[in-house]
């Protein structure tokens, strides 16, 4: 039997917990290319996998342009050519460096917040102490 599983937009929406509007947006961005039966979009298993990869890529911090670039590299040949794999390794390395910088930036902001919180607590304690002294006078 040569049965190929297909999905409706609502099935994919429910499976991946994304809106149908998001899926249509990915289609508008040429990241998904479903077939049509009349006005109904018909998604293949390949479209399902691509949607899963889009969502994973977004979660990892890749832009839609970067995801599109990775898809186009992969679509050139599905054999996993040396060029594709090398470029993918470069993208992974770049994303890792970007995330490491974000981690450093977040750590700095946390230190600044700790300092601001400490100053606020000190000022609040000082005000409370002054108010108590004024009440006892």
UniProtKB/TrEMBL annotation:
Q: Does the keyword Lyase apply?
A: no
Keyword line: Coiled coil, DNA-binding
The record's section on CDD domains has: HTH_GnyR (cd04776)
What Pfam families does UniProt report for this protein, alphabetically? MerR_1 (PF13411)
Coiled-coil intervals, chain numbering: 92-133
Which stretches make up the HTH merR-type domain? 6-73
Q: Which domain of life is it from?
A: Bacteria
Q: Which residues form the signal peptide?
A: none
Single GO term (MF): DNA binding
Q: What is this protein called?
A: MerR family DNA-binding transcriptional regulator
**Organism (species):** Pontibacterium sinense
């Amino acid at each position: 039997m040569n049965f190929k599983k297909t999905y409706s937009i609502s099935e994919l929406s429910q499976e991946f917990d994304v809106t149908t509007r998001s899926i249509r947006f990915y289609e508008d961005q040429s990241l998904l290319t479903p077939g049509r039966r009349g006005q109904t979009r018909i998604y293949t298993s390949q479209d399902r996998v691509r949607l899963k990869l889009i969502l994973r890529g977004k979660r990892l911090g890749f832009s839609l342009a970067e995801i599109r670039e990775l898809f186009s590299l992969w679509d050139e040949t599905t054999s996993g050519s040396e060029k594709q794999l090398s470029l993918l390794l470069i993208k992974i390395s770049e994303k890792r460096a970007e995330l490491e910088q974000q981690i450093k930036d977040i750590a700095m902001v946390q230190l600044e917040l700790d300092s601001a919180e400490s100053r606020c607590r000190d000022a609040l304690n000082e005000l409370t102490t002054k108010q108590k002294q004024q009440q006892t006078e």
